[in-house]
Amino acid sequence: MSTTYRVMKIHDFGNSIFYRVACGCTDPDHEATLILEFDENNPKIMILTLYQRVVWGDWYYRGDKWFDKIISRIKTVFKILFKGWLELEGSMIFMDVDHVEAFICALQEGKNKLQLTK
Ligand SMILES: [Zn+2]
User: Fold this and answer.
1) Distant-in-sequence, close-in-space partners of 66: CB < 8 Å, separation ≥ 6
2) What is the predicted pLDDT for the residue at 70?
3) Residue 76, C-beta contacts closer than 8 angstroms, at least 6 positions apart
4) How many whole angstroms from 25 Cα to the centroid of ligand 1?
């Protein structure tokens, strides 16, 4: 399996490799960008970063009224303002074994790059 099945390599900069990972539901808003980074000063370390658009959950599933949604957003803004951070989560659907294997293939590529720098 290659990384071309729902996991597409965007670019290899040498010290960082970028992939676009499609969500199994095919919504482009659920896509993630997987970045594997390698530090020349610490050749045994690989940093994995996953960028994904996440949505504040009050808009889904709870059935809040319009005003409650606005209050929830205002509370969220104050959390960010006074705490400086916010916990969010994003999900991605892996549709089948091939999709998972393509993701693993991307990680394997990073692993191989680490082993080359030993
Ligand atoms: Zn999705």
Assistant:
1) none
2) 85
3) 56, 86
4) 4
Taking ligand 1, which is a single-atom ion, which protein residues have CB atoms under 5 Å away? Answer: 23, 25, 27, 30
| In the chain, % of residues over pLDDT 90 | 48
Write down the pTM of the prediction. Answer: 0.77
Residue scoring higher pLDDT (4 or 86) = 86
Residues 6+ apart with CB under 8 A from 113: 17, 36, 38, 46
Quickly count: other Cβ atoms within 10 Å of residue 77's Cβ. Answer: 11
Q: Are the beta carbons of 38 and 16 closer than 8 angstroms?
A: yes
The pLDDT of residue 77 is: 92
Dist. CA 117 → ligand 1 center (Å): 36
Ranges of each domain in the chain: 1-54+89-118, 56-88
Whole-number CA gyration radius for the chain: 18
